[in-house]
Amino acid sequence: MYSDCHDPSKRTPPVVSLIAGGVAGGVEAAATYPFEFAKTRAQLRQERGIPTPRNPFLVVAQTFRREGAAALYKGCSSLIVGSIAKDAVRFLSFDTIKHAFADPETGTLSPIRNLLAGMAAGVFASLTAVTPTERIKTALIDDARTERRFRGPFHAAAVIWKEHGLGGIYRGFAGTTLKQAGATAFRMGTYNILKDYEKRHNIPQDGATTNFVNGAIAGTVTTLSTQPFDTIKTRSQSAKGEGVLEAFKGIREDGGIRAFWRGTTMRLGRTVMAGGILFTTYEQVVKIARPALNPVIEKER
Known about the structure:
9 helices, 75% helix
């Protein structure tokens, strides 16, 4: 993914990007899901008679005490499936767009081009994978604390489709796309900028520690920059479903401007870990998959 764009022999083949991105997304989602669960619960609108702590750590403790450990993974399967698809598409599209944006003389990207490549990849991922799976995941988490109508992700998808059609499945598309465009731009862009900096200064990039630190820094930048979009997206994709403007007004009514950064602590904890896990896993899978698939790739050329 982050090899020399100028030398075709060093580029990551599309099939390798697709496989490595999917594996990395699944591993990252499974490892960090309780953070995502707590962040989502903290962002949802409070129900009368059902007080929800705004401290995500208290959300985890309360959920564990009242509903058991399994409840912390409510909606997890939907997120894992979505993350496999999302990151497979995101890494593949970012690599493809990155090569198109690369400077023809040096084969590298400017910081702005890195961000634009990430933004385009995020929009594509939102359209093809992220919005439907995030809608189902959020509806499951919200439903578990109130009506409990949904028996699982497939049942939730069937009910939403029956009651609201395709528009219900894509509820929150605007908020999700804004979040994904910003998140992918900052996450992929920051990571690639760090890799380019290390390359120029001859800093070794093969170690898992370097990959993890780069990913963690990219995750931190991403969270702080895109949290308001994430909060709006969560409200829009609750079990009841709210329009973007309705979600915006509801968040302001609940806590003013600060409410748009609700869940930042837990999301930051997740994205720092997730960024490290995601990019480290991706780089390691590329190292394994590329030599294994090289004979097939060369044969196709």
